[in-house]
Specification:
The complex is a heterotrimer of chains A (642), B (277) and C (274).
Chain A lengths: L4 E4 L2 E4 L3 H12 L4 E5 L15 E2 L11 H11 L6 H20 L14 E2 L9 E2 L5 H24 L6 E5 L1 E9 L2 E9 L5 E5 L2 E4 L20 H9 L3 E2 L4 E8 L13 H4 L3 E3 L23 H9 L13 H13 L9 E4 L6 H7 L1 H11 L8 E10 L2 E2 L14 E3 L16 H23 L8 H12 L16 H15 L6 H18 L12 H25 L22 E7 L16 E7 L5 H4 L4 H7 L2 H5 L1
Parallel strand pairs in A: 1-10, 2-3, 2-11, 3-7, 11-18
Antiparallel strand pairs in A: 4-6, 5-6, 8-9, 9-10, 12-17, 12-19, 13-16, 14-15, 15-16, 19-20
Helix pairs in contact in A: 1-4, 1-11, 2-3, 3-11, 5-15, 9-10, 13-14, 13-15, 14-15
Chain B lengths: L37 H23 L4 E2 L2 E2 L32 H13 L2 H10 L30 H21 L13 H18 L2 H9 L8 H14 L2 H23 L10
Antiparallel strand pairs in B: 1-2
Chain C lengths: L21 E11 L2 E11 L5 H11 L19 E4 L2 E4 L13 E5 L6 E3 L2 E2 L2 H9 L18 H11 L6 H5 L1 H4 L11 H12 L12 H7 L11 H5 L6 H17 L2 H10 L4
Parallel strand pairs in C: 1-5
Antiparallel strand pairs in C: 1-2, 3-4, 3-5, 6-7
Helix pairs in contact in C: 3-6, 6-9, 7-9
Classes of the chains: A alpha/beta (642), B mainly alpha (277), C alpha+beta (274).
Chain lengths: 642, 277, 274
Amino acid sequence: MAQVERQQWDVVVVGAGGAGLRAAIEAREQGARTAVICKSLFGKAHTVMAEGGIAASMGNVNSGDNWQVHFRDTLRGGKFLNQWRMAELHAREAPDRVWELETWGALFDRTKDGRISQRNFGGHEYPRLAHVGDRTGLELIRTLQQKIVALQQEDEREFGDHEARLKVFQECTVTRVLKDGERVSGAFCYERESGRFFVVEAPSVVLATGGIGKSFKVTSNSWEYTGDGHALALLAGAPLLNMEFVQFHPTGMVWPPSVKGILVTESVRGDGGVLRNSDGKRFMFDYIPDVFKEKYAESEQEGDRWYEDPDNNRRPPELLPRDEVARAINAEVKAGRGSPHGGVFLDVSTRMPADVIRRRLPSMYHQFKELADVDITAEAMEVGPTCHYVMGGIAVESDTAAARGVPGLFAAGEVAGGMHGSNRLGGNSLSDLLVFGRRAGLYAARYAAESATAPVVDEALVDAAAAEALRPFSAEGPEAGAAPENPYTLHQELQQTMNDLVGIIRREGEMAEALDKLAELRQRARRAGVEGHRQFNPGWHLALDLRNMLLVSECVARAALERTESRGGHTREDHPGMSRDWRRVNLLCALADPTGGLAATDPARGQIALTRVTTDPIRPDLLALFDKEELVKYLAEEELYE
Amino acid sequence: MATGTEPHLKKGTAPGGVRHGTRAAITAAHLRTDRWWLQPAATAAGLFAFVVYSTWRAFANADYYEAPYVSPFYSPCIAENCEPMKNGPNWEIFGSWWGLSPALLILIFPLGFRLTCYYYRKAYYRGFWASPPACAVAEPHATYTGETRFPLILQNIHRYFFYAAVPVAGILTYDTVLAFRDEHYAWGHMGLGTLVFLVNIVLIWAYTLSCHSCRHIVGGKLKHFSKHPVRYRMWRWVGWLNGRHMLLAWASLISVALADFYVYLIASGAFDDPRLF
Amino acid sequence: MSTSTTSGTDSDSGTGGGGSAYDARFRVWRGDVEGGDLKDFTVRVNEGEVVLDIIHRLQATQAPDLAVRWNCKAGKCGSCSAEINGRPRLMCMTRMSVFAREDVITVTPLRAFPVVRDLVTDVGFNYTKAREVPAFVPPKDLGPGEYRMMQEDVDRSQEFRKCIECFLCQDTCHVVRDHEENKTAFAGPRFLMRVAELDMHPLDAAADTGLDRKATAQEEHGLGYCNITKCCTEVCPEGIHITDNALIPLKERAVDRKYDPLVWLGNKIRRRPT
């Protein structure tokens, strides 16, 4: 095997979205030499697509807000399955993380007195989302990107080299996290542009690769969301948590087919948009679950009054957490009251003047105008659920973001699990990125500084990784000489399978079928072949990403089959109720055969083993934030008395 | 390379544009399939027509005054050889030594204003100089320094021409007021010419105030609008006009030529000014 | 390499409001820095599709190694920039319905930047230029959470921050597109707009550090090269008024510094050594 270039860094961050960049900034400011490796160009990460805002209880619009209320909302949204310490840290630290962005040049929309404006969002008791129109994610990523450039300018002044202490390897993919014994030793990467392999050696690796949405057909996620970090962690021996919880955003575009799944921001509802079925009825009033009955308006009149007078009225049920709204839309469509293209109507045109719509929802206006030829100031949008976010992810320590079981491995952002429980509230993702991105960077830098000896990267591991990455070029069909599998076809079949069989409403038989289909795809994926050479070859890239998507898809399907209740982003038709006994149960996914590579695992039987773990009891002072009547809906008897 | 951020400035490669050695090997200067040449051609034709017409009229030194109308090309008239205009804007600032058309003395101001105008610059850089002829259509020049050197660096004095354009517009306003007199200088008249002048002066003012320099001066230069609410309002108002700068540039160019032509028609006796009241 | 993938015939009957699929003719540039050519393809087009959908179909069915950058497919990330029929555009925001069915649609990489492979170019120029613009300078006397800015004061910079960095403006700008040698001296519309954004930021304290963004716009970032021919504004998929709201105001601000004798005199007096 040819010599592969090696570089030494203190901290390697995989992914350059909000969490990755925030981690890199923190690690660099802690003094660690930091490398960021990302699949796309710098500044293009999926975070740019976040629209609504960053949830942080700054209390700028309603001074009643504070971290305790935010914490409470987050736990309610996640149906009490959240890793409560994460939710606490998140609620406490989010305001500081937002304010910090301003000192780096971010320009949020303002209140009348010049503070950061905050908007209403589903599941949040008060207006809480710092935002910039409906392009908050872009503002976030650009601010972090520009902060990184600012740090590089500092290095240029000090060392004459922009990249002395912080370097972004753009358009590079990590295919393996490498280990020296138990601990992390670096990452094996290829450069997309040239196909060249290289190794970054580092005692700390932060995974911040985002989600898994590209395993589903209808998704709001970009091509990058192939579950890379999830798979890298699994392969490195770190377990994944709560993988059955996949959030389907209630409002994705449904027409035309080529844009199906593209997100329609929740701000449309936060700012007054309403959902109607084909009878013109605001059906959400029929779908308020018992646990939320006291919190939501009972009549359209009350809901409408709430926008002006939130203290004396209850919010409209369009602003229920996403899982509730998505299920309701699904049910309406199934009952035959859907829109012509299989969604429901989301209407702002009758609720706000046209110029207000264009000012507050500029990118939605353009998105519909340009992609669907629909003028949202004049007619209703057609929307339906779309795969949006995975609550599950790498099991991490709440305070340090360290992956359980693998020293030196950290995870932050969507790729980390636990924070959001069974369902994430809108706006909590961007704040999650910042809070835990920073923490991951901080503790990764500390861990690197405390490592007495540099880890060693074994040549054999590098050779194995290189061989694995090159396999698609020599793939052959089932019989020698037969045509190899087309990775694009495999990907489409995988997406169809997950969408149809492990989608928004799940049934035992279908998930078993999905596991069979995944086994078949896994076998065929081993024969996935590509044409051409290694230079910027998307077919090859996809063939490599398939391994990751198949791994995480199996995690989702197995965990979903195991959890016999409905909660948040996991809805079982055969187990429609939420079970208090399941509340304390987390499902961990790990490689069935932790010793070897994937080759050692029987492709048909499966690669993932599940274990059940019981979570720590919620700290009493946090429990005290809730009414007893509310807690009895969620918590098992014995938890209440502890 | 993907990991670096250095631009590919291969040392020793000849300077060039879209056919530069590192770029995608496409021989065509452009691949546009629409009628991209139409706009620069129309712009060039329009500007050329105006230049021809205004040159003829500026040098003609005749048929520019017929009470109560004075051609905007000749107002204010500041040489001794001007036709007398009662109460009109003719002041003998320049003495008898000036023998050429008095229009030349005054036209340099509106000419300079329009020549350095941000819209006209775009129009003639594209239309006459093909720099570029249209977006993503290769320009025919081997080198380009833009407005970094003499003479084009002088484009930066646009705001001084704006300062000069304001009194000129004021004088044309005065002319328009005088156009409410009849041919015997009695007030209370309105002819078709008055209407032509009215339209012209509204467009002249709208064009002048929509100027980018004006927008900068009234408020654009401020860092904090919130501390200057009046200037902020003015800035927004000028900004609204500024959004129509191209339209106003053409409309006022045509209207000023028409106003002059109208005066020419009646001064030369080819046409009689219809009286409205 | 002209192949037809689809087995179906053109089912368009010419009626029904164009609701049916058809076969379109595409010419896509394929190659790398060593050379390349426009290749012909015939490919199926369904209702409501955009050019990027067609490129993806080419990848999935005819040219699996066709290199193309894309991310969000919703006009928010600015990755899929290319030139379609010679015009710089985002592939994801170019609907097939803007073309006639008989049109041959030509797709090439951006022609102002070095080509990497097929539709992918090396946009490193832009990242270099980004580094040359000094970052936001936070005011010394304000801590996090103490920033107060009025909406009307942030409006202007917010417009510029809508930029998705698709680099179409950088691609179309003739200053660098047609003159490679200007790449050193000229930051391009996107980064001149960044200078304007910072200069208009209500709390940027660059001046306190001795950095005059108005002057450096011209002296270091090549503002003078811009001849305001507005192609940047024409191609901007975000509809940012780059020329009118960023570049021209910046030029006027540079005039304040460098060509206005009154301002110059005022500064001389104020900057008198103490």
